[in-house]
Write a structure and sequence with these properties.
Herpes Virus-1, 6% strand, rod-shaped, RING-type domain-containing protein, E3_ubiquitin-ligase_RING, zinc
Amino acid sequence: MLDRCKRDYKIGLGGITLIAVISHVRLIAANHESTVQLNSACVCVLSSTILFIFFVYPSSRHTYIKNTDNFCYYNYALHFIFIAATWIFNPTEGYGKLGTYRVFGAQLCMSIVTIQVFTLFYSTMRNRVYLLNQNIRQEERAAPQIDQNVQDQVVTVPVESSDAEDSDDDGEEICSFKTLECNVCFKRFKGSSKRRTPRILTSCGHSLCHKCLETLSGSQGYVICPTCMKKTVVPVGGVKMLQKNYIALGLLEEIDGKKRLEKKPDEKEEIFGAIRLVEDTEKTI
């Protein structure tokens, strides 16, 4: 949605800006010809209205443009030059002051509208278009059954057999399973570390670690999944507002628990061996 709105803004605001510049120049060069002035004003108003209705207004219902402060001063200076040029290139001799005032008034009325349009178009070209909060929530709800997608993705672990050797092999396969690793840094997820905590991308269900999500999002406000190239909008509050992948964290805890259980029999054998050694020494004595 954000890309489509940016495209419509560039078409609509860019077209209005181009038409406004041509109309400003045409009014200056009209040389007090009332017919040319009227035609230029009508073409400018009608064309700008059509572009606004079909491109700018639909996008403004879902997004907003953050104005660029520094450009405003240059914009005001540009329109001041347009208005000042009216007095320079439209002499009053032979036409009277009324004709000059008419052109000056037309330039002034157009400048009131085009000052804001120029600023919005410049901000759009600088990628300062953002989704409204309500549309961010709608995009999050649009992801169909995220939990089921994550479960299908993560819980595809080989079935453990009853033999000890088979269970060891399965454990190694689980440890090397790619869904327990971040697809960007290729490091294993870890629940005890904030940076390595897996978080779910709402648009596709894939998981990335917290640190990589912060790096990819930056100041853009969205993350593109490296696996499927789908875009996920970062909620208000940052990456920490994305849901954790508790299924992956549960599998990691289970794997760590199995490793601890595998070490315990070795410790028991050492203890029993020490006890037998003591008993044998007592018998010999």
